[in-house]
Design goal:
- The chain has helices at 19-24, 39-44, 53-64, 71-85, and strands at 2-13, 26-36, 89-99, 110-118.
- The protein has a single domain, classed as GTP Cyclohydrolase I, domain 2 (2-Layer Sandwich), CATH 3.30.1130.
- Helices cover 32% and strands 36% of the residues.
- By secondary structure, the chain is an alpha+beta fold.
Length: 120
Amino acid sequence: MGTISLEGMEFYARHGCFAEEQAIGNRFTVDVYMEVNVLRAAATDCMDDTVNYQAAYGVVQREMLVTSKLLEHVAGRIAGSLLRSFGSIARVTVKVAKLNPPLGGGAVRQSSVTLVEERA
């Protein structure tokens, strides 16, 4: 087993509970860690034996375009879509962070949710 990571993916999206957040949008980062048997790809040097990074990024990008109120919902959709899209992923960890969230008067660099989902 090994871990394929896509870290620091940046998106502008319209997630949030407040109408203003959904209208104006905000900046987000996403980190994804996919546990995959990478031994065959290590031996064959063949893309068909691993997870295509570009395709995985595309899955994350599509889910970030769907407006949600909660980061938990966004992370859950990303995890589920990755597991459905790539049968080789045994377990996926997704972290979604909202940069500079509007939290009543205080300066907060980011708020985030980390979700772990395993293949049944």
